[in-house]
Amino acid sequence: MSPRTPQQFKEMREEKMTLIMDVALEHFANEGYYRTTINHIARHAGMSKGLMYNYFESKEALLKAIIHKSVNEVYKYLDIDRDGYLSEDEFEFFIKKINVLLKGKRYFWRLLMQLLMQNDVREQFLKAFPESDSLIHPGHEPGDNYYPLQMMKMITDYFLRKKERIGKQYDPDSEINMFFITMMGFAVKSIYSDADDNDKAINRIIELFK
Amino acid sequence: MSPRTPQQFKEMREEKMTLIMDVALEHFANEGYYRTTINHIARHAGMSKGLMYNYFESKEALLKAIIHKSVNEVYKYLDIDRDGYLSEDEFEFFIKKINVLLKGKRYFWRLLMQLLMQNDVREQFLKAFPESDSLIHPGHEPGDNYYPLQMMKMITDYFLRKKERIGKQYDPDSEINMFFITMMGFAVKSIYSDADDNDKAINRIIELFK
Amino acid sequence: MSPRTPQQFKEMREEKMTLIMDVALEHFANEGYYRTTINHIARHAGMSKGLMYNYFESKEALLKAIIHKSVNEVYKYLDIDRDGYLSEDEFEFFIKKINVLLKGKRYFWRLLMQLLMQNDVREQFLKAFPESDSLIHPGHEPGDNYYPLQMMKMITDYFLRKKERIGKQYDPDSEINMFFITMMGFAVKSIYSDADDNDKAINRIIELFK
Amino acid sequence: MSPRTPQQFKEMREEKMTLIMDVALEHFANEGYYRTTINHIARHAGMSKGLMYNYFESKEALLKAIIHKSVNEVYKYLDIDRDGYLSEDEFEFFIKKINVLLKGKRYFWRLLMQLLMQNDVREQFLKAFPESDSLIHPGHEPGDNYYPLQMMKMITDYFLRKKERIGKQYDPDSEINMFFITMMGFAVKSIYSDADDNDKAINRIIELFK
DNA sequence: GATGAATGAGTATTCATTCAT
DNA sequence: CATGAATGAATACTCATTCAT
């Protein structure tokens, strides 16, 4: 029997890594990072404890890998590195995309919420990400904003322009604040319940803020 | 020195318990339940590990005691066990009360959010409370609703009555959903940031949903 | 029963720490640091694994504590912080002291030899000790030499003065080198064998080098 | 390509084994046996873990092979299996040979020192070697002495004869002891430092003990 | 009541060794 | 022959809980 080629090894590795990350994410999200043991993950991924360490050098490294991967997927999906300008149609489209994201990556969002709720982790997280090249869009220039800030700005700008459309009586600060509050509430609900009325809610949100 | 009366002993005991619970809540909320050690709590409360077990028979018992106490305070503060009917003024008043609660008991809400994000804890929590007498209002009869459900119903009823006020084009289900979403978002924001524009947001919420 | 006083606790602690260090030193010296498990030490010291960590925060910390303690005892015993000048009688006395030290602290020297034979440990060790205040003699001034160097210098000076006594044909560099070689050989023999002719050898060494 | 002959296979095999043993010896000597992993050795020898087990059935077997090989080389180099008699010139020659050995096989001596410092290994070692045919000289008869003892005897005899040369005032026991002490000290120094004055020291040793 | 020493079950991690390919 | 994935036993370390004083 001829031995495996390096290519085959690489594929095996990547498959296993994905498997481990998927299983780990599910458990981290549902039981929490600290309650989830490496043993538990290994068993559920159908392998021995030891093998896990062939792929991830520590529990924390596994966590970080999951976060990086997921954050990258999210960024890629949102595909924001365009003109930084949201038209009304793009605004609607953007919100619908967020809804799809929340539905599809529920475990990741659960995990992220848990993590961000711990003071020190939150600080770590905010510090860690701007340093990571992989999270910066391709055309990124030193001095450019990173995605989260970029997103905030795009939306803020949208509401400021809306004031011009609507007139004096419109208070953009208040509206921006309400928008983020509503989106946060929607996210939490979406992540933790399987309600089928989320699409309806998204439409209402678009109606209210577009 | 005159010997202490039983009454004095009881008061000292309760003071200590309160102290422990306060310290524990703060750490549970900020570092998480699992990352917080009994030793740490004891040191911060200025006593020894051993003594803590004089007051709470386990770490979990301490957690439960904190939750019970806080939930009771919340219920007492909201004071809902009246006619189960919300007038428009009462609705406004109710929301403002919630804002005050969120501001004042931030650590408790942080802890609660963390706990409710774990699947099994969430289930435990929902199951556990009906068993607890102290959480059931005085006039409670078997078969009555418990507070959380009662609250939900009160608010739901409010919106259903609003439909009568406003007419056909009003969709109460959608509005109820949006209301809970908004309140959830507001809660998260209030709990995790020190923004001073929360009162403004509350007024806007009242304006939108009253 | 009245509770233990802080003083009693302190004494208990110190007793246990000494016990642990003694047992650990014996095993480190005979089986080597890596072959000796914490479990093993704990069992031989008649306590649980966990308790060891009440006294030493890691296996490495235990090792370092042992080294520090022993090095300090050695320095204290050698009591070199005098005039830095060795007369002929003092030279003889000094060598005899070293013999006593080697006999009495055999385990420590075994451990030290093992450690110093590992490249990285050796470097660590040499770097670590000059930083430690506790290893510097009481009258130490910034700029003073530390003990090992001080010892070397004292001895070197002794041989240089000896040249003056004896005359041209005496090669002090060669003699210093031979002296250190002989002392090293004596140390190794003394540490690893129980021979009773060590005292005789010491007298011969004095005869040869005084 | 013509297929390889069995002879070629054997040579390739031996080359690989030598490579592995060289790399392993270097790491065992410098980092210690326990700190050196099989993986590490394999990587540094440019092969996979698995392949190593094709050549050596265990880490311990590798260690033993290294020791056997080196000890044999040493014995072969010292070439003692002659008449067991050391003339004055042979004595000088013998010591010079030892100096060359120490210079050239420094890693082996480092390893050996580390091993011999562990009580049980030392015992193992002393027991193990008589069992090994390869370490017994060709003309070996059951009951003959093994090399280390033979060497000791040769040297001891040399000093006993020296007494006859010199006379009463010469104490051969003391001198033998001092000689071994000095040689041990010289060995340690030679193994662990790169000093260039070792040759000078050897000449002084010859001068002192010849 | 009050203290912290003591325990032991549990957890992450390492590494020699085996094995399918 | 060659590879590295896979295993599992061993090991350092943590922490809730108990207990003698």
Question: Would you summarize the structure shown here?
Answer:
Chain A is mostly helical and 210 residues long. Helix content of chain A is 72%, strand content 0%. Chain A has two domains: 1-57, Homeodomain-like (Arc Repressor Mutant, subunit A, Orthogonal Bundle); 60-209.
Q: How is this structure best described in words?
A:
- Four copies of one chain form a homotetramer.
- With 210 residues, chain A is mainly α.
- In chain A, 72% of the residues lie in helices and 0% in strands.
- The first copy, chain A, contains ten helices and no strands.
- The first copy, chain A, has helices at 6-31, 38-44, 49-55, 59-78, 88-104, 106-116, 119-128, 147-166, 172-192, 198-209.
- In chain A, α8 crosses α9.
- Chain A binds a DNA duplex (21 and 21 nucleotides) through α1 and α3.
Main pleated sheet of chain A: none
What structural class should be given to the helix and strand makeup of chain A?
A: mainly alpha
How many domains in all of chain A? Answer: 2
Oligomer classification: homotetramer
H/E element order of chain A:
HHHHHHHHHH
Shape of chain A: elongated
What descriptive keywords fit this protein?
homotetramer, Arc Repressor Mutant, subunit A, mainly alpha, DNA-binding, elongated, 2 domains, 210 residues
